[in-house]
Amino acid sequence: MIATIIASCKHDDSKTASPAPVGCYTDTVNTVSFARDIVPVLRQNCALSGCHTGSAPTGNLNLDSGIAYAALMKPGTGYINTATPTASLLYSQLTSTADPMPPTGKLDNCTISLVLKWIQQQAPNN
What we know:
With about 130 residues, the protein is an all-alpha fold.
């Protein structure tokens, strides 16, 4: 199942992270908080009915608030790569042009930059 998720994601190693647009929340916050900053993004865009929630989440990735951190950090999944943040499957899916997540439309650049900054800060469970 995980192989299916990873295979559906295309990662361009030549891609580098773009700086956050001026005026983003990431300009003023030093430490991104998983609970304060990342969980709301997941709840509003990923942990929706028919997607990454419930007893049979899409791709076997449940992003419900209480278990999202453990699911993202599960060893061997590649969802979060703190050594090379732009290689994280989560970041790759958010920035993909071929198959972006969420399927309802790409997140704004400020939100994507917030997720990337959290990963760059070693993805703490704070």
